[in-house]
Amino acid sequence: MKEYIKGANPYMPLWEHVPDGEPRVFEHEGEKRVYVYGSHDIEKDQYCGRDYVVWSAPVDDLTDWKCHGVIYRTHYDSILYAPDVVKKGDTYYLYAAEKKGSLVVVASAKTPWGPFEDPVETKLGFDPGVLVDDDGKVYAYWGGCAAPCYIAEMEEDMATIKEGTLVENPLGHSTCPWDPKDDGHISLIDAFFEASSPRKVLGKYVYLYSKRYEKPVPELGVFEPCNGFLSYRIAETPFGPFHDGGDISFNGGEILHDSEGRGTMTYQWGNNHGSIMEVNGKWYIFYHRQTGVNEYSRQAMLEPVDVALGTDGKLYIGDVKYLEGEPVSSKPVEMTSQGAHINGLDAYKWISAGYACHIYGSRKRAYVRPGYEQREDLSTSVVDITSGTTVGFRYLQFGVNTAKSVSVVLEEAKKLKVLVRLDSYKGRVISVLDFTGSEKELTAELACGVIGKHAVYFEFRSDAPEESYIFDRFTFDR
Fold first, then answer.
1. Which end of the chain has fewer CB atoms within 10 angstroms, the N or the C?
2. Are 213 and 73 within one domain?
3. How many angstroms separate the CA atoms of 410 and 387, rounded?
4. Same domain flag for 191 and 233
5. What distance in Å separates the CA atoms of residue 404 and residue 425, rounded to the nearest whole number?
6. Which DSSP symbol is given to 12?
7. In this structure, what CATH number is given to the domain that contains residue 446?
8. Which of 283, 300, 331 is the last residue of a domain?
9. Is 12 within the bounds of a domain?
10. For residue 295, with 0-12 CB atoms within 10 Å meaning exposed, 13-18 middle and 19 or more buried, which class applies?
11. CA-CA distance, 171 to 192, in Å (whole number)?
């Protein structure tokens, strides 16, 4: 019986919904693992939930994730927003955002998975991010939306702001038009929105945050205010001054470009939160995407990134361009289906439609339907597909022995054709599956051999333009 792909993108099981992920590499009892701490989208009709869970993976295999269960529950009967966890000495400190981020408490534990106990109230605010510097000093960063961001040094108790160290608005911030408290702050092009995450990278202080673009970014298909980015600025000290870095992640899916370089998104963007982490000698950006029709069922994603320090002292993070071996620019890394499977997903396992990073062309706005049933063979379907929709996956690995057939599973038996395309949503057709309306699963031979790593797209065609279809999963066979 075929296995289902695991540890793809999203890298946690498809039933799990952990956004706002702050990755940390901790070594505990001789074992080094990467831990992801985030909020927990379990309310379904609003952001987050009333507990935190933590997942971890060995540093040498970011496709093998383990849940350690609930590490903290609200002490105020409230919704918990994005947290952060750091280690100082032999103690782990969880900065829990109680009361929807309006009250930050710090709890402690002796293991990375808690339970975190004895919470102490702090004066920190929304979306706290904490940096333990090489000299043991601790700095907190926070802020969001219409409120400015802040930086402060913390006392030894990890809860008290050190007198005289509070810095307000080190980055400048965006407007928040839906917040009635917004008093007309100036809209900034490269504007802080929320999601503070301080990191120390190659000797530089890096302030990662969610940027809100107030101007169009045509090359990425952004033509209205958008805060689906994770961006960064760099400084020589924890307090700045911070200089322009760039954008690392954008959760709008594959970007299609026309002849003039204008982009079109193929996945519904939404808020973004996360950070970078060096894991086993390789850097990654941890972020989240949206499922469903709102932002209440977000899922954890990751992509490899380049990190390079130029001779001019500038730090480049993301998809870095080099000229004669010197980094000269960077842009957001692509959003993929493969995540840490950097050689591509095994094409010969079952691959859920829920791993799609390209959903394009539906008359009804097709989307990944959230799933919550905790089982290993759970597949989350793409729903509201109409004729002309393409659903794409980047990337699959076919190996050195050629694939010979493809199988597609629908949730409902309906009449339609499914064209399988290679490398592009307009790429060559390598197979056609002709569903007659009496079957949910169909297998068809490939018109040519396929080996190596490729993007794969499924195009749905029907004579009933208003009919909708549900794509569940697929696999290839040799």
1. N
2. yes
3. 14
4. yes
5. 20
6. S
7. 2.60.120.260
8. 331
9. no
10. middle
11. 7
Q: What Rg do the C-alpha atoms of the chain give, in angstroms?
A: 23
Cα–Cα distance measured from residue 192 to residue 188, given in angstroms and rounded to the nearest whole number: 8
CA dist., res. 244 & res. 316, Å (int): 10
DSSP calls for 319-359 = EEEEETTEEEEEEPPPP-S-TT-TT-EETTSBEEGGG-SEE
Q: How far apart are CA 165 and CA 171, in angstroms?
A: 16
Task: Report pLDDT for 401.
Answer: 94
Taking alpha carbons only, the member of 272, 420, 415, 254 closest to residue 337 is: 254
CA distance 216 to 234: 24
The backbone region for 118, taken as left when phi is positive above 0, alpha when psi lies in -120 to 50, beta otherwise, is: left
Unique residue bearing structure tokens 């060096």:
278
What integer is the mean pLDDT of 414-425? 98
186 against 303, higher pLDDT: 303
For the segment 277-309, what is each residue's pLDDT rounded down to a tens digit? 999 999 999 999 999 999 999 999 999 999 999
230 and 360 in a single domain? The answer is no
157: pLDDT strictly greater than 80: yes
Strand extents, DSSP E, 399-452: 403-410, 415-422, 429-436, 441-450
Residue 160 Cα distances to 43, 201, 384, 437, angstroms: 32, 26, 51, 65
pLDDT tens digits, one per residue of 203-212: 999 999 999 9
SS3 breakdown of the chain: % helix, strand, coil, rounded to 5? 0, 50, 50
Sorted by sequence, the CB contacts under 8 Å of residue 325 that are 6+ apart come out as: none
| Per-residue pLDDT at 187 | 52
Pairing mode, strands 91-97 and 81-88? antiparallel
Residue 389 · residue 421 · CB < 8 Å: no
